[in-house]
């Protein structure tokens, strides 16, 4: 087991200055854990960020944790896998099921858009290519590993993750990440307390935590829009 005093950091790689492209990189000792792997959506200036090289080598990431299946939280997974990520993607069962529908559809749509852009000649490039393909999405789905709510997942070196109900949609989770003497609690997208279709998000209580959520406009997230921020905790 790794010492509780190993160096830990949290970097905001997306959902900072905007509510899309959720990506948080937690580094603990020699471990790299990516929480959410979302697409940037909306304005072209945001979508263009999907084409930029990932801030760290995808092959250097050990594990991905998904809060839920919406594309701004899961939609970059096929590109990450194609670029070299080969670890497990941990999620809830319903998130795996929904990703099985959403990610292949996203790859198919991107292929169709690339063909249409080439046919109509409005792309900047002579041969426009999709960010990823249907086959890339299918390859990414093989990396998904489902877990029930409330059960600790051993990520190695004394690091554990637990999925906690978040409401929002089927399978949506908050993630409690335990790193030795520190706890990082990621809210993901939270549902409402009174929803006719979904159970409300579960409450949580921790003594030591860093709270990361694209729903909160903190000074930390604003700072990270200029340069990926790496607070140590």
TrEMBL record:
Protein name: MBL fold metallo-hydrolase
Organism: Hoeflea algicola
The organism's place on the tree of life at top rank: Bacteria
Record Pfam families: Lactamase_B
Taxonomic classification: Bacteria, Pseudomonadati, Pseudomonadota, Alphaproteobacteria, Hyphomicrobiales
InterPro entries: MBL, Metallo-B-lactamas, RibonucZ/Hydroxyglut_hydro
SMART domains: Lactamase_B (SM00849)
Limits of the Metallo-beta-lactamase domain: 20-232
Coiled coil: none
Signal peptide segment: none
